[in-house]
Amino acid sequence: MTKLLSPAKSKVLFLGNEAIARGALEAGVAVATGYPGTPSSEVIESLAHVASERNLYVEWSVNEKVALEVAAAASFAGLRSMAVMKQNGVNVASDFLLHLTASGTRGGLVLVSCEDPGALSSVNEGESRYFARMLEMPLLEPSDFQEAKDLTKWAFELSEQIGNVVMLRSVTRMSHASGNVICGKLPVKSRKAHFEYNGSVMDSSRGPMISTPVVAKHLLHQQKLKVVEALFEKSPFNRYVGAAKPELLIITSSACFLYAEEAIELLGLQKRVGILKLGTTWPLPPKLLEKHLRQTTKILIVEEVMPFLEENVKVLAAGLVNRIGAKTFFGKYDETLPSVGELNPDIVAAALCYILKVKSKTLPANYLSDSRKAAALIPAREQTFCAGCPHRASFWNIHNAIALDGHKGFVCGDIGCYSMAALSPATGYHTMPTLHSMGSGTGLASGFAKLAQFGLDKPILTVCGDSTFYHAVIPALINAQHNRADITFIVLDNAGTAMTGFQPHPGLAISAMKEVVPALDIAAICSAIGAKVAVSDPFDLETTGKILTSFLADKGSLKVLILRQACALSPEKKGKKIFEVKVNESLCLGDACGCNRLCTRIFRCPALTWDRTKNKAVVDEVICAGCGVCVSICPQKAIIKL
Hints:
Blueprint: E1 11-15, H1 16-27, E2 31-34, H2 41-49, H3 51-54, E3 57-60, H4 64-76, E4 81-86, H5 87-103, E5 109-115, H6 129-135, E6 139-140, H7 145-162, E7 166-171, H8 172-175, E8 178-182, H9 214-233, E9 239-241, E10 248-253, H10 256-267, E11 273-278, E12 280-282, H11 286-293, E13 298-302, H12 308-319, H13 321-324, E14 328-330, H14 345-356, H15 367-376, H16 390-405, E15 410-412, H17 440-448, E16 460-465, H18 466-482, E17 487-493, H19 522-528, E18 532-536, H20 541-553, E19 559-564, E20 581-583, H21 598-603, E21 608-611, E22 616-619, H22 629-633, E23 639-641
Parallel strand pairs: 2-3, 2-4, 4-5, 5-7, 6-7, 10-11, 10-13, 13-14, 15-16, 16-17, 17-19, 18-19
Antiparallel strand pairs: 1-8, 6-12, 9-11, 20-23, 21-22
Helix pairs in contact: 1-2, 1-7, 4-5, 10-14, 16-20, 17-18
């Protein structure tokens, strides 16, 4: 039995995302949907593993907007459902979300947004809390693993009580850390789906699920938020720790509560500093805030990343100034805390030292010198593609084709492992100067391609991954074809959502629940819109190079090249080598070759290293994935397949 189905009262070590999944199970969730994105993916993966035992429907949707729509359908039919995504995904889902909060819901519907302060696995550290305020829906933020489970369960109950969506926000340090959780009961009975729509338009339980009449529905929605505000006043997920009348009050939420606790303990300030930890961060509970704001004149707001909580507390305090008096606020706006990146106990401790004029505990005299010595022993490593990664071969092909074409073309990028092609020669050979949201590379390329009349007459290429193709590229590709954009569109098809853990997508014949499903062919889709389509293996440098060269010379149309080769770390390839590869030392001329160490200085596969004693290239047999591409790039043919 999986630990996710552990019996009630048992203490289990859960990943934060597993705790969220367990909370959903205890709430009786029936439908769970999402799109893979770190740090959110494990919620759906955990539920998919128990789908058959718990009679769940679990889906990796084509994108986050569709995920929310599928979950909403279940809610309209009276079932409890959840849609799970990372911070970027809420932007994708927001179009439907705007209408959903207006129409309301029936069965409990929870939108889980797992966010990434510091952009540890993202290309931005944006956050979704502002959507809660903008769309007037409750926002919950767990501060530890027990709360991650308990708040998730309560979120479904709250959603049903008010008939609307509830947002649950986690962060990387909550989603991807682990802690002990005491399990509650799993429900025995399941609900039966029934969609009623013959009632009055204003009857949210039996009428049609629409957002009109808009003003009347909006007023009803705001009345629901007043109910939420009253519930939040008494919520057990809000609590105060510290002296009755602290010199400084910290108001915080999420994992920042743990940072604040540790910082206070580190500095021994338990009698001077109090913490008001909020698990319900929108709407704020005004009476609770007023009670604690009265007790001191100094308030520090500790949160990641944007000053969302700080802004809302300040607005509330301004309205209460006649009752609570003037306050001095510290946080993001006065730069007591940084407005970018993750927080940690040391950063919070530094803020406390500044506000309270105390000295931090000094490090041992030799700490810095010893740490520098230790750091010097760590080998320098750069971000790069894995050994045997098909993307390295793809960008090698792309770079060479652009150079051979001679018209200074460039590549519009996209999100995935291949985003590293925007970073350095070690990954992309200076080919990808744009990188934005999923699908934007194709949209940008479509735009660049129409600028010839304004003097931008260069070959325009764009790349995306196979999962991204289904997620967001198809509309942009249709736009390019319809408007006759002259672009070369390259799909880096590595047979799965590789960056987030090889979750299936519509191009594969398997679902999240391991069921056999129809696979949609990228080449057929592109052919159906009238594009010129070719398929090649990126490891076959000669064939791929010829296709790319011909595509760049073919002016005035949309060309699609699908470079198909599974990820080196995929389950079907991991630990298996296509070829055994080695360097023939008698053929390798080292610095005398004239190639200027092409293999290790430019191609830079991690499995290719430079032996300084022999002055020759060496293949690391442990790291080498056996793709054989390096055999093709060596001008002396010194790298050979066995």
